[in-house]
């Protein structure tokens, strides 16, 4: 049977497991929207296409499936760029469907044309550097091949975003419905066998070490290696620290957790790495600027290093390793766990992390390196309140990562998604809303978006998207009337020559009232006590405004 290409595209999305698609319609994509009308996919109207891509990314992160967004030609597509770039940096399987002018207008200056011909915007060139696969489809005879390639890049073990641009006339053209039978929807991730040699060499280095330390990266989480990581740590008494993105790779409230490693963290892990560790297992972490303390040579000086990553580009990118293993982290960790059990490897001497933290804190205080002074006590208390209030876990999308990195201990039942990747302001609220389309209270975990007032004003209107579709989300807004990181840098490095960092905020109580959502203002620890009585965190949309002093700066330097 012949059906329009627009319906083929909708069926393709359904077979990929897409449940929600985020976007804004326009005339050049209306045939696909019409196909969505009778489909199983919920379409969600957003306020800006950038947010549509962020929402798709948020949905992909929480669900483990594929996120989807849809826009019209021209500005609809170009507005996606930041969100697609974010998905690319975070290896998220996001598909974007964009419209295009009819092919007979290519090169003639059609309205919103982005074919790249006749001086028009070249959309293929625009997305080439931030997608795994992008195609402007000009004929239907190779459509099945295009869809197969798209599915392959979305369903592989190391996915990334895909953008398909479909001219208006092709959307209406009819093709055989059986076309989708030529497309493989099988996930291609395979757990390759780890060479015994690598496990033996890893064990040999572990046996020699007195104080090994694991630095867990996001690869430990996305590879499904958390249980094996926890088992190895406990069996051998090996402390674990993590990159920011991998917070929660092991339960940060456990006795072997050193918390997060990085220039904006409290510094316990950095001191253990420098003062105690003689062997470092760098597992699925890129050792980027933040984690490596701007590539400080002292961190790994005089230590043995095992580096494991599935991405060859990450291996020895910064430091030389004594053992380099390119492998799936989950497969490596499970193989290492089995070998430790079978060979009955002797555990290391127990490490009293609590005592080490106490000693390290004294060193930090004496050196004047404490990151947060008493002006941040109510912020610290808020994160402690979250731990106490939600022992069953929560879901957190975090733009304001400096606070959570030090104050929030991610537990096994939490889902913590920091705004890493390209670190775009304005990400947390739409990403959380996208995740909420899957969540809607079904996990029993409340959903939080943590954001500063500068980022809020880039995406605040997306709250109405949550209102329109009844998506529960708790927005935690840090209000200090400034772009805090910029002001801090101008204070530290530019002699208080403040420019374009301060601004006037709206009255957030009135703004929340206009949205029809709850609002609470928090200026001190005492005001945290009544939050649980005032708000339903699982079923409602709430705005928690936490007031900060604009001249209170975290005590770290980004060396910028």
Strand order of the main beta sheet, please? 3-2-4-5-7-6
| Largest β-sheet summary | 6 strands, parallel
According to DSSP, the number of beta strands is: 20
Radius of gyration: 25 Å
Give the tally of structural domains: 3
- Specify the helix fraction band: 25-40%
Uncertain residue ranges: none
Contiguous helical run count:
22
Q: Which of globular, elongated, flat, extended, rod-shaped describes the shape?
A: globular
Your description of this structure?
It is a single chain. This protein has three domains: 2-182, Rossmann fold (3-Layer(aba) Sandwich), CATH 3.40.50; 196-366, 3-Layer(aba) Sandwich (Rossmann fold); 374-547, Rossmann fold, CATH 3.40.50.970. Helix 1 packs across helix 2 (30-37), helix 9 (196-208) crosses helix 13 and helix 11 packs parallel to helix 13 (329-343). The strands form four sheets. A six-stranded parallel β-sheet has the order 3-2-4-5-7-6, with helices on both faces. It has 22 helices and 20 strands. The protein is an alpha/beta fold and 560 residues long. The protein is 36% helix and 17% strand. It starts with a strand and ends in a 13-residue tail after the last strand. The model has no long low-confidence stretch (mean pLDDT 92). The longest helix is centred in the N-terminal third of the chain and has 15 residues, at 49-63.
């Amino acid at each position: 049977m012949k059906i329009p290409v627009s319906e083929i595209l909708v069926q393709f999305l359904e077979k990929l497991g897409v449940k929600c698609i985020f976007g804004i319609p326009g005339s050049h994509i209306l045939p696909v929207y019409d196909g969505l009308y009778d489909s199983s996919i919920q379409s969600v109207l957003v306020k800006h296409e950038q947010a549509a891509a962020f929402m798709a990314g948020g949905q992909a992160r929480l669900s483990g499936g594929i996120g989807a967004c849809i826009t019209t030609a021209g500005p609809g597509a170009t507005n996606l760029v930041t969100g697609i770039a974010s998905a690319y940096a975070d290896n998220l399987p996001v598909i974007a469907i964009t419209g295009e002018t009819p092919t007979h207008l290519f090169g003639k200056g059609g309205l919103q044309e982005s074919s790249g011909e006749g001086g028009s915007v070249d959309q293929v060139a625009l997305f080439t550097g931030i997608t795994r696969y992008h195609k402007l489809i000009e004929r239907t005879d190779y459509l099945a091949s295009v869809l197969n390639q798209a599915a392959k890049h979305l369903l592989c073990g190391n996915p990334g975003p895909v953008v398909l641009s479909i001219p208006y006339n092709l959307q209406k053209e009819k093709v055989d419905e059986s076309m989708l039978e030529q497309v493989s929807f099988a996930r291609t991730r395979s757990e390759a066998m780890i060479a015994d040699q690598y496990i033996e060499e890893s064990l040999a280095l572990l046996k020699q070490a007195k104080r090994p330390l694991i630095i867990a990266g996001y690869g430990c989480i996305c590879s499904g290696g958390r249980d094996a990581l926890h088992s190895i740590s406990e069996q051998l008494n090996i402390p674990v620290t993590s990159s920011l993105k991998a917070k929660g790779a092991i339960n940060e409230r456990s006795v072997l957790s050193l918390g997060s490693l990085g220039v904006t963290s409290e510094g316990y892990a950095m001191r253990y790495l420098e003062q105690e560790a003689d062997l470092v297992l760098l597992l699925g972490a890129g050792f980027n600027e933040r984690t490596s303390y701007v590539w400080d040579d002292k961190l790994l000086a005089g230590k043995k290093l095992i580096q494991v990553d599935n991405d060859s580009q990450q291996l020895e990118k910064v430091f030389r390793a004594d053992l380099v293993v390119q492998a799936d982290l989950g497969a490596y960790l499970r193989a290492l766990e089995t070998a430790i059990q079978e060979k009955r490897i002797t555990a290391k001497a127990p490490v009293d992390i609590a005592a080490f933290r106490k000693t390290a804190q004294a060193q930090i205080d004496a050196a004047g390196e404490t990151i947060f002074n008493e002006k941040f006590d109510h912020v610290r208390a808020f994160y402690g309140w979250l731990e106490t209030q939600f022992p069953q876990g929560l879901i957190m999308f975090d733009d304001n990562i400096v606070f959570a990195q030090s104050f929030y201990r991610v537990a096994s039942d939490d889902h913590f998604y920091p705004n890493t990747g390209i670190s775009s302001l304005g990400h947390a609220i739409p990403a959380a809303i996208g995740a909420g389309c899957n969540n809607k209270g079904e996990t029993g975990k409340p959903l939080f978006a943590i954001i500063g007032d500068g980022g809020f004003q880039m995406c605040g209107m997306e709250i109405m998207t949550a209102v329109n579709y009844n998506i529960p989300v708790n927005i935690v807004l840090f209000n200090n009337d400034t772009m805090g990181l910029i002001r801090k840098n101008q204070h530290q490095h530019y002699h208080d020559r403040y420019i374009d960092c301060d601004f006037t905020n709206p009255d957030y109580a009135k703004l929340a009232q206009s949205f029809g959502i709850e609002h609470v203002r928090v200026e001190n620890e005492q005001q945290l006590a009544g939050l649980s009585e005032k708000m339903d965190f699982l079923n409602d949309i709430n705005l928690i405004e936490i007031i900060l002093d604009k001249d209170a700066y975290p005590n770290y330097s980004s060396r910028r």
